[in-house]
Amino acid sequence: MKRTKIQKFNPDTIKGKKRLKIDTFKLADDSVISLPCGVISKGNKPKIAITGGQHGNEWNGTYITQRLYKEIPLEKTNGTIILLPVLNPPAFNQKTRVSSIDNIDLNRTYLGNDRKPTERLGKLLFENIFSKMDYIIDIHTGGPGEYLPHTAIIDRERVKEASLMLPYLYIAKSTGGSLISSAERETIKSYLIEVGRGRNINYKFVKQVINGIKNFLKGTNITKGQVTKKETETFLNKQKIPSPQSGFFKANTKLGEFIEKGQTIGKIEKMMGQTKTIKSPISGRIIYIRRERVVAEGENVLHLLY
Ligand SMILES: [Zn+2]
């Protein structure tokens, strides 16, 4: 497999369908952080980067990104698709959200310092790859909980194209330093997908997201083919519901369900103590449910979109 220095990686001249190793920079022991990359390109615009593994324990995004490399034929491509399934290799190898090299969240580094290794990785990726794109799709999962597959954007101009992907769309507020926030500041059209939970692969959800991304690629003329119109429910607000006490959580609601204000969400059983019923403070669509049963007081058990 060809190795390329990230500074020499040029999405404007790359052509064909190929796998690469992108070398970024050297760690303390002189070993190089090297990223797996798949390119499917006719050497034209529009250019898109699809990324997973910013957080090393979020495997659905990694799995989806590498599947897209295998499933999209070069003949059906008009533009340039850059697939990066593992943006943070040290964290992926440790199977943890951030790597223990510096415990820095890669998804908060893009417009910041570059002194620590993870910050340096973020800066190199942004300068040499992301800043040259027309589009970015960045795929994540929940950690202790599970997300219903949905898209999030921070620019309302993206609603129409985002609606090509998944049935639920959240227009979020900007999060400082995140890849999609940083890219939107450079006017790169950016989309975040949340799908399933950490340290797991949900093949049903994965298939839904792959089909959604393929439809988006057709709708943006990056690939050829018939676009399917989709019904999308759009939300402007998210509320996270915290647990009122520490203990063992049991949900009695399902992902995707619409719940009314006052409806029971689940129960939290205190260690050697009382069980409390948790009720929803608002009406909304359940987009996230905590799957880890052990919960501390104040930790979120549910996210609602409304
Ligand atoms: Zn993540």
Features:
single chain; OB fold (Dihydrolipoamide Acetyltransferase, E2P); 2 domains; 19% helix; globular; binds zinc ion
Structure description:
With 306 residues, this protein is α/β, with parallel strands linked by helices. The protein has two domains: 233 residues, Aminopeptidase (3-Layer(aba) Sandwich); 69 residues, RNA polymerase II/Efflux pump adaptor protein, barrel-sandwich hybrid domain (OB fold (Dihydrolipoamide Acetyltransferase, E2P), Beta Barrel). It is 19% helix and 34% strand. It is built from six helices and 18 strands. The strands form two sheets. Strands 1, 2, 3, 4, 5, 6, 7, 8, 9, 10, 11, 13, 16 and 18 form a 14-stranded mixed beta sheet that branches. β2 and β3 form a beta hairpin. α1 packs across α6. It is globular and about 65 Å long. The structure holds zinc ion (ZN). Zinc ion binds next to loops. The site of zinc ion has 4 residues, from loops.
